[in-house]
Amino acid sequence: MDTYGLIGFPLKHSFSAMFFTEKFKKENIDAEYLNVEIGDIQQIRDVILTHRHLKGLNVTIPYKEQVIPYLDELSPEAKKIGAVNVIKIDRNPNDKRTYYLKGYNTDYVGFKKSIEPLINSDIHKKALVLGTGGASKAVVQALIDLGIDWKYVSRTAGENKYTYNELTPEIINSYQIIINASPVGTFPKVNECPDIPYQYLTRNHLLYDLVYNPAETVFLKKGKDKGATIKNGEEMLHLQAEAAWKIWTA
Who is most buried in 13, 191, 217, 227, counting CB within 10 A? Predict the structure, then answer.
């Protein structure tokens, strides 16, 4: 039986195992999907050696960038983005302990395809990206390719960034897309939300949350209360997962 899995920490919030387990059952695929929590990215070697039938991995917080030095090759989009969420494992058929790891980024595809239908080109010209981790890098690349100007929002100052306490009414008014690419609001901390001035949101705003558990985060609810268009990350999850499956089985 082929094995696939997810590495990250923590993994209580992840739906990937449920998604792939249901897919395998529905399509009569003889495979299993495991959640593997690791406290240090160096443990990826142990994971691959322990699970000799492992053919592919998804990568989530906090390892999308940290995993890169452990890979033998990056796909062009992963190299461009600087983050990996899918790994294909090719093993030596004569020695399962010898393997070749190639990293990909399907977050880019999932995010771009899921947000594109919601964008009104007359209104949605600039975006704020909350968070600067690995997922945000795929978001930023998609925004660039969609022709949308962007800036990060972070707790620390830096180039092409606002800090949260710098967000004025004028900034919120001029950035009509706001994307939560941080884990804030994820189960079990469902009562938390990014610290932005929600009172300045309008019906022209589009709020997108990469979080999908819960389905409606506090971030999205506050946007909906102001009449904004909202979307969570569930469709992005499905799209990136199907893209990962194509990579693993190519």
Answer: 217
